[in-house]
Each structure stands twice: as C-alpha cells, then as structure tokens.
Amino acid sequence: MSRSALLAVDGGGSKVDAALLSRTGDVLGAARVPDPKWEDTGDELHMESIGAALEAAALDAGLDPAARPIADMGVYCLAGADLPADDRRILRGLHRRGFTGVNVLRNDTFAVLRAGTERDWGVGVVCGFGTNCSGVAPNGRQYRLPAIGRISGDWGGAVEIGETALWHAIRARDGRGPATTLATSVPKALGLRTPRQVMEALYLRRMDEARLAELAPIIFRAAAEGDRVARDLVDRQADEIVLMAGAAIRRLGMRALDVEVVLGGGIFRNRYPPFFERIEAGLRTVAERARIVVLGAPPVVGAAMLALDRVGASGRAKVRVRATLTHERLSADPRPTEG
Q1: Which DSSP state fits 337?
Q2: How do residues 324-333 score in pLDDT, each as one tens digit?
Q3: What is the CATH number of the domain that holds 290?
Q4: What are the CA-CA distances from residue 302 to residues 38, 165, 268 (Å)?
Q5: Is the same domain home to 147 and 14?
Q6: 80 and 53, same structural domain?
Q7: What's the domain range around 143?
Q8: Could you give the 3-state DSSP secondary structure of residue 289?
Q9: Are 147 and 130 in contact (CB under 8 A)?
Q10: 119-157 pLDDT tens trace
C-alpha cells in the first residue's frame, strides 16, 4: 500500500496530531508532534508542522513518509483558520505541499465538537492558549467566531487569564488591589521571587509572554483554596464560555433543543467542580436542556469523524476509530528502533 484513504489532522496552540485511516475505521498510523503557537508563525512553519506529523504517522503506518499524496483526502482542523482569508491562505499552502488529494479545512473547534458527540451538530468551545467557539445546527447552518484576540471581542484562555493573574498579583503587592495568594504563587511558578520581577522580565523580553499560560493551574488551585481574587478570575472565564456558547445556541435557533456543548482544551483539564457547575448553570438559562461534555478524547478524533462522515463510513467504522485513536496511541514513538 502506497497511501491511505484518509488523513485527519488537528493543529492547536502547542501540538499537531495526525492519523492515517482506512474507510473502515482502521487507524493505520498516528503521531503527535509539538508545534509553536500558530498565531505567531508563518504559513511555511504551519506546513512544516503538519508535514512532520504526517511523516511520523506514515512511519507508524509503514508507509513511505515522502510519498505524496499520502492519502486520498485530508481533513485539517487547525487553529488559525479563523477568517475566510486564513482559509484561502492555508488551503493554498496545503495544495502546494500536496499532502493529500483532496483538502478539507476546518477550524479546530469543529474537531472538538465532533470528537465529543455522536451527532453532527452542537456547540464546540476550545479554551487552551486562547479561546474560540463554533456551532452547527441540525440543519447544517454554522456559527463561527473570528477568535483573533481582543480586536474580535475575545477574552480568555490560559495566556489571558495568566496575564490577568499577574495584573492582580502586582496590584496586591503595591497596594492598589486586594490581597491575594497570587502575589506569591504567580512569580514562584515562573521561577522568580516577586510579581515585579515577572513584569520586568516580560517588559525587557527576557521572558516569552506565552509562559503566562503556565499560570492557569496555579489560578485554579488558588480558587479551590478559597482565594477570592482567583475565584473571581475563574468565574469570569466560566462566564465568557457561557457567553460564547450561548450566542451560538441563540443564533442557530437551538434554545429548545437538548444541545450538547463540548468543552476542549487545557483549561478544561482542571479539577475545580464549581467552574463546570457555573458553566452548566449558565448555559441552562439559555437552553434548559443543554448539557456540557468535557472532551476526554484527542480532538483529532473529531477530524477523523468528519473525514468518515464525508465518505459515508459506517457507524462501526466510527466506533473503531474512537476506540483506538487515543492520547496513548498518538504519544507512542513511531520511529524505528536500532539494533
């Protein structure tokens, strides 16, 4: 075999996952590679990251990693595919590289949504480095946010809540704000002694702003321990998720439906129950029968489901992919051992 039928790719803020599949749902090869933050890289780096994941998956499948096209069709669910102009640019890059015969591009929120539900409709929310939301109505109509930062009305994600935690830590230390344990835990988590040292490291560009994402677990831990400032910050993130998902539900006319809202990304890996309770309670003020689904599967499963949907694969094929395309499968080293 020189190529597979399908390629599924999920590219987020920190990694790219790729899986080669048969139409019957056999996972022929799968791999995960690290990736720089998509919004801060150029198109060629995007393609290089996808190519690296594809080649690792091909090695895992026993295929020639240099073969092009490696699959008849590829479904690429990518962070950074936000505006129609982004879609056109990324599709041009995919066409130039010739990874797959047919290229289907979606934002990564659509992978999260399809990975978390057996339906082909609902709402997907990503909250990792940044945040985004998309929705699909039962009739196929879509809702999609630009999600390019504050200029498109966004707030939230690990970097932004980390930056806000630093803001509170500095104000607590210099007397402008209420006391909070974040004044100690924020700099400690970043290997420094004081909030001011963190501020200076960022200002003088000795520290990458992306490192603020490392603070998210610290903030949730402080909230769980009763810190009022941290709790307010966590509540703000929960409320923003409700606003995004609620807007999708309303705009798509799904308020009377038992809509599933799938939550994917690093922020949702916390173990702070009030965060999820607040999201679910907020969503039920929009749609009484709404329920949240915290995604446990890798989002690339959603890209695989979208690919199988397009070729009319059986339900059994989809069950097979869900059972075998796991985080453990993606993390296995596909490189041949020596000896």
Answers
A1: P
A2: 999 999 986 5
A3: 3.30.420.40
A4: 19, 33, 17
A5: no
A6: yes
A7: 122-154+234-294
A8: coil
A9: yes
A10: 999 999 999 989 999 999 999 999 999 988 889 999 999
